[in-house]
Amino acid sequence: MKFERYGIGIAKGMALTFKHLFRAPITVQYPEEKLAVSRRIRGNELVWFLDKCTGCATCAKACPQGNIEIVTHVGDENNYVVDKFEVDTGRCMFCGLCVEACPYDALAMGRSYERAQYRRGDVILNKEQLQMSDIRQPSGYARPKIEATLPRQNLLVYWDKKKGGQKLRWLSLSKKRGRGV
Amino acid sequence: MTLLEQFQLWLGGIWPDWAAYIVPGIVGILVVLGFVVISVIVFIWYERRLLGRFQIRLGPNRLGPEGIFQPLATALKILLKEDIVPAMGDKIIHWLAPVIVFVPVLMVFAVVPFGEKAILADLNVGIVYVVAISSVSAVGIYMAGWASNNKYALIAALRTVAQMVSYELPVVLAILGVVLMAGSMSMTQIVTAQTLPFIIFQPLGFVIFFLGTVAEMNRSPFDLLEADSEIVAGYHIEYSGMKFAMFYLGEYGHALAYACIISTLFLGGWQGPFLPPIIWLMIKVVAVFSVIVWMRATLPRLRVDQLMAFAWKGLLPMAIINLFIIAAEVLLLPEITPWIIVAMNFVFAGVLIVLWSKLFTLGGGRVEV
After folding, report:
1. CB of A181 within 8 A of CB of B63?
2. Of B361, B289, B292, B355, nearest to B322 (Cα)?
3. By the 8 A CB rule, do B134 and B104 touch?
4. B56, B58, B298: residue with CB nearest A13
């Protein structure tokens, strides 16, 4: 006589869920805790490097939507001087073709993903707004040199005592959890 | 003499008779209502947090310390919502249904003993009152399903009636075992009769009663009448605003009421060392509720035919046999030491569960699961 039935399966299942009570939750409490995104993320918005750009407009030609508007004039040293470089990120689908097309690495995808705006006009970015700043960092998409400097992606927030995490409380974790990977 | 009667007697010396009779009653009702509503709010929070921990999540933890105010925010949101009655629905019955679901739940608490004297009405047929009153909410759910003029609601209503009627029988038969052993139907005397909790005397009766009540309060894995994946929200699909809140309150109030009844009948009620009686009752109630949440976190929902088969082929015959065993023990072995009866009943419970599980094998037991 096998004791496979008789409620053994239910008991096994109940024991399994009971064990889950003592595991650390996998929830990422988003605004306070953020995971490191992929190093090659095609995040919202582009990052434009003023000194590298020659004004060749290859990016504008590569864009399937025609979102990039670039106006130049000829400068003193027989070069292009960029007068206007505007990207309508409202219509942008973040395909990354402009970044791949740029011959001088003057354009990169952004790493940020919290760039919602209140006005439609605010998503059209001009020359000054597109340059690198604290909140606008370039991602490693099609830019291996940038990628090598970025932190690796993680998929979980780990509880790690050595990195300043605190003890597991019964119902929740403390907000000061350490981060692994 | 209960606390309420003492209050009435004391007030009778000061106030006219009719006021001294009515005012303590109203005070008692308000105390019980406050207790139920506050407990339900705490229970909603507790269930969501505990369910989260069972599923390796956190659960609501934003509003207030550990998210304790989340149910209040939910309640506020629900109260502000528009009240919608379906165009072709029966408006009067649609209005009446939430009340009929909620009020019996509240009435059950009248006979729950929170302490030796802390009981609203010490009826000598207390447990019969509980059985009678708690069945009324099935009518309310049926009315809700019927008046909504919605196919899902109607399916849920029909399922409810089938489920409630089926599971009433094993529950009542399991209660009879307790009544036989306690020798009384009064809730206070059932509690005082438990020198050892009846769960030790009647393990099988406890299992039957527990599963039966979980089915009666329509909680997972018996939550067929609001099965989200099949019939969306079941009987309260057409309800919103305050009326939906009444159903929600009634559902959790039902769970609270039955947790109280299970604690009273099988776990020794308010009895316990050191701590005050009300604390002991609440500890037992929370423990029972935790097990219910644990079941919800683990077990998948039964099919309708499985539900019916479990009631009529599983619980009912076992409850009848359990009743016969208890009756024989009470009648033939009244003077024997309790531990022999305990051992006998555990053996009977094991044998019966193994025998009856044969009925629920696939393909007559030929198919390995």
Report:
1. no
2. B355
3. yes
4. B298
Cβ-Cβ contacts under 8 Å, A5 against chain B: 357, 360-361, 369
- The residue of chain A with its CA nearest to that of B62 is A29
Class of domain A46-150: alpha beta
The amino acid present at B205, given as its one-letter code, is G
For B47, residues 6+ apart whose C-beta sits below 8 A from its C-beta are: B252, B289, B293, B296
Chain B within 8 Å of A78 (Cβ-Cβ)?
A: no
Q: Which of B36, B96, B3 is nearest to B258 (CA)?
A: B36
Write the pLDDT tens digit of every residue in A73-92.
888 888 888 888 888 888 88
User: Which of B66, B353, B368 minimises the CB distance to A6?
Assistant: B353
B46 sits in which H/E element: helix B17-54
B259 neighbors B110 (Cβ within 8 angstroms)? no
> Are A20 and B54 within 8 A, CB to CB?
yes
pLDDT tens string B229-250? 888 888 888 888 888 888 888 8
As given in the structure block, the two tokens for residue A9 are: 């399966």
Domain ranges of chain A: 2-27, 46-150
pTM for this predicted structure: 0.80
Domain boundaries, chain B: 1-80, 81-359
Q: Which chain B positions have a beta carbon within 8 Å of A170's beta carbon?
A: 53
Nearest residue to A98 (alpha-carbon basis) of A54, A66, A126, A121:
A66
